C-alpha cells in the first residue's frame, strides 16, 4: 500500500501540479498561508497512515475539515466555493473513517480528498512562479 499513498500525495502536493495555461480568476483574499497548513496536515496524514497512527491522522483531518478556505466576510467566485465545500466534506469523511479506526476506508477517503486539492488547483491556482 505504501507506494500508492506516496504516489497520490506526490501528485497532489507537487510544485507544478497545475494544468491550466491561462491565469486563473483572482481570489479576493490571500489563501497561501492556509494552503501551507493544508500541506502540512496532508503530509502528516500520509505519514500517520503509513505508521498506523489513526489518532494523529484524525487530529490533522480535523484541522483540514475546519480550515477556512473561504475567509469570513469574503465572496470568492461561486465555483471556488463549490470546490471549497467539496473539500470540506471529503475531509469530514476522512476524519470519520479515522475516528472509526477504519484504515481501508480512511485510505480511500484520503486519496479522494487529495483529488479535491488537485481539482481546485486546476481551476484556481496559477502556474507556480
Ligand atoms: C478550494 C480550492 C482549493 C483547495 C480545495 C485546495 N487548494 Fe491549495 N491552493 C488553492 C489556490 C487558489 C492556490 C494558489 C494561491 C496563490 O498563489 O495565491 C493554492 C496553493 C497551494 C499551495 C502553494 C501555496 C503557496 O504558498 O504558494 C499549496 C502547498 C497547496 N495549495 C496545497 C493544498 C493541499 C495539500 C490541498 C488539499 C489538502 C489544497 N491545497 C486544497 C486552492 C485550493
At a glance:
68% of the residues lie in helices and 0% in strands.
Radius of gyration: 14 Å
CATH topology descriptor: Four Helix Bundle (Hemerythrin (Met), subunit A)
* Mean pLDDT over the residues: 89
Say what oligomer this is.
Answer: single chain
Succession of helices and strands: HHHHH
Cofactors, ions, other ligands = heme C
* Helix share, percent: 55-70%
**Percent of residues in beta strands?**
under 5%
Structure description:
There is one protein chain. The chain has 129 residues and is mainly alpha-helical. It has a single domain (30-67, 77-129), classed as Up-down Bundle (Four Helix Bundle (Hemerythrin (Met), subunit A)), CATH 1.20.120. Helix content is 68%, strand content 0%. Helix 1 packs antiparallel against helix 2. It is elongated, with a radius of gyration of 14 Å. 26% of the residues are buried. The mean pLDDT is 89. Heme C is lined by residues 12-13, 27, 31-32, 35-36, 38-39, 42, 69, 80, 83-84, 87, 116-117, 120-121, 124-126. Residues 12-13, 27, 31-32, 35-36, 38-39, 42, 69, 80, 83-84, 87, 116-117, 120-121, 124-126 line the site of heme C (HEC).
Spell out the key features of this protein:
single chain; 129 residues; mainly alpha; Four Helix Bundle (Hemerythrin (Met), subunit A); 5 helices; 68% helix; elongated; binds heme C
List the helices and strands and how they pair.
Layout: H1 2-13, H2 32-51, H3 54-65, H4 78-99, H5 103-124
Helix pairs in contact: 1-2, 1-5, 2-3, 2-5, 3-4, 4-5
Bound molecules: heme C (HEC).
